[in-house]
Hints:
By secondary structure, this protein is mainly α. The protein has helices at 2-17, 22-151, 154-166, 170-183, 190-203, 207-220, 227-240, 244-257, 262-273. The longest helix has 130 residues, at 22-151. Mean pLDDT is 80; it is low at 1-5.
Amino acid sequence: MQFVRRGLPLIFIIALAGCATRETVDSMQRDMDEMKSRLFKMEKDIGGMRSETKEGIDKTIKDFHKEMESQRKGAADLQATLDSTKVDMQVLTGKVDDVRVLAQKPADDLALLKEDTDRRLAAMEDRLARLDKGFDEFQKKMTEAKAAEAEQTPEALYQKGLETLRKGDPQKSREYLSRFLELFPKHDLAANVHYWLGETYYSEKKYDQAILEFQEIIKNYSGNEKIPAAMLKQAMAFKELGDAKSARYVYKKLSEDYPHTDEARVAKEKLKDLK
C-alpha cells in the first residue's frame, strides 16, 4: 500500500512530462480512483479480519483461563483426596501395628513349638536312618549267608570246582572239590569229584597224586561210569612217570573190562605205541 501511495505523484509527473493528452489523464484518473477504491476495501477487510482475529484470540484466552481454573480446582480436589488417603493409611498402619503386637506372643509360642517339633522329627529321622542302615547291613549279611550256604550245596561246590579248573586254576578247583568230599562223601557225584581231583593233579604234573585219586574210583566205586576214564588217565600218568609196565597193564585191563567204551579204543591205540 505504501508503494502504491508513493507511486501516485510519480505517475502524474510522468504524465505531465510526457505531454499526455487529456484523455490519457482521465483514464489514468479512473484507474487511480479504482485503485483507491480497492485499497479502501482491502483496508476495510483487513480491519474486519483484525477485529475477528482479536475476538477469537480473546475468546481462546478466556476459555484457556476457564480451563486452567477448572484444572486448578481438580488438582485441589485430588490433593484433598490424597491427604485424606494418607490419613487413612496412617490410621490403618497403626491398627496393623496393634494387631502385630497382639499376635506376637502366640507367634512366639508357635515358633517354640515348631522348633521343638523340628528337633523331634530330626531325632526320629536320624533314628530311622540308623535303623535303615542296620536293616540294609542285616539284609546284606543274610544275602551273603544265603550265597555262602548256596555255595556249600553239593551241586554248587561241584560246579565251582569244574569252572575254576576250566579257567586254569587247579589249586582253587581242588579246594572246592575237597570241600565237597568233606561235606558229602556219600553223594552220587563223589566218584566224579575224585576223577576231577585227579585231573587237577595231572594238569600240574603231579602224577603220583593223580594216580591215587583215579585209584579211589577204581577201588571204591565199582560199576561207576567214571571208571573207564579214570583207568585211561591213570595209565597215562604211569607212562608220564616212565612206568611203562604199569601203564601197559592198566591199558590192557581197560580194553578187556570195558571193551565197548571210547576209553578202551583209545587204550588199544596207546598200547600199540607203548614200547
